[in-house]
Amino acid sequence: MNSVCVIGGSRYFGRRVVERLRDEGVAVTVVNRGSSPAPEGVTHLLADRDDEEGLRAALADRAFDVVLDQVCYTPRQAAVARRIFAGRTRRYVMTSTIEVYSSLDASTGTPLAEDAVDLAAQPVRMDLPWDDPAFLDEHYGEGKRQAEAVLAGEPAFGFVSVRAGHVLGGEDFTGRLAHYVTRVAEGLPIVAHPAPRPSSFINDQEIADFLVWAARSAFTGPVNACSDGPLDVTGLCEALAAAGVGHAVLTTDGRPSPFSFDRAYGMDNGRAARLGFTFSHTADWLPRVVSEALACV
């Protein structure tokens, strides 16, 4: 693998992926709208991925061994990507999400494997208001499912969808972990469901490692990426206490906090493990992540 195009990838674990590839001697091209600068030592192309002709013009005649798409959220974006990168790459790795399983429940205790979602039977609705931020936020998992279905349905290249567990890291721009750290440190209650259920997580370093590994591999299809050891909201609060942040006060009064789920959807990471990736356990890295988040607030 000599050349990689990263769509997005200018912050959080995406930036770590770009820097890791660059440091390994890969020629990296980053494509984004310019809201954040690309790391030094990479080619930076300014383009809006929703502007098909503008993206095609920015790419010119470039071709890549692998495209790593960090910001594909809708079937429309997937269709544009398929048209533009057909003939430009042999392998396309899309960062997807555990939220593709959002309509399912793993309460039986059996973690969800990749075949729990049948992409071939997934309806694709290009007519939905995907350009409405509020609609997209509310239908995040659906958008990712349909994007996967588009890219897998008529493959123009070897396609991989990396379904990442909920990502935890001290520099998480979403503010979800900071929500816990801040409220616990200030003695404010954490709102949780009366019977919170577990979900799968992965840390910011491990998902970056996984994406680089997936880019270098030869397999195709969906693959779950998560650490061993699912967590619920009480486990997360216990980690905060162990890190010295304080002891959380849980309440059921109000809108539930991030990562407080009323149903279980832990993922089965067996496919990735069989393909050769070794996952950590959440207990191995949660103290580090909490300490980093505490330092950032």
Question: Which properties best describe this structure?
Answer:
10 helices, Rossmann fold, two-stranded parallel sheet, alpha/beta
Structural notes for this entry:
- The chain is α/β, with parallel strands linked by helices.
- The chain has a single domain, classed as Rossmann fold (3-Layer(aba) Sandwich).
- Helix content is 35%, strand content 18%.
- The chain contains 10 helices and 11 strands.
- The protein has helices at 12-23, 52-59, 75-85, 133-138, 140-153, 176-185, 204-216, 233-242, 270-275, 282-296; strands at residues 3-7, 27-32, 43-46, 64-69, 89-97, 158-164, 166-168, 190-191, 201-203, 221-225, 250-251.
- The strands form 3 sheets. A 7-stranded parallel β-sheet has the order 3-2-1-4-5-6-10, sandwiched between helices. A two-stranded parallel ribbon has the order 7-9.
- Helix 3 links the parallel strand 4 (64-69) and strand 5.
- The model has no long low-confidence stretch (mean pLDDT 91).
- As for the CATH topology, it is Rossmann fold
Residue-averaged pLDDT, rounded?
91
Please report the total strand number as a whole number: 11
* Estimated structural class: alpha/beta
Distance between the termini: 39 Å
Give the fraction of residues assigned to helices.
Answer: 25-40%
Q: What are the low-pLDDT stretches, counting only 5+ consecutive residues below 50?
A: none
Spatial sequence of strands, sheet with the most strands? 3-2-1-4-5-6-10
Instruction: Please name the fourth-level CATH homologous superfamily.
Output: NAD(P)-binding Rossmann-like Domain
How is the biggest beta sheet arranged? 7 strands, parallel
What is the CATH top level name? Answer: Alpha Beta
- The secondary-structure element order is EHEEHEHEHHEEHEEHEHEHH
- Shape designation: globular
Which CATH architecture would you pick? 3-Layer(aba) Sandwich
Count of individual domains: 1
- What radius of gyration results from the CA coordinates? 19 Å
Question: What count of helical segments does DSSP give?
Answer: 10
Q: How large is the share of residues in beta strands?
A: 15-25%
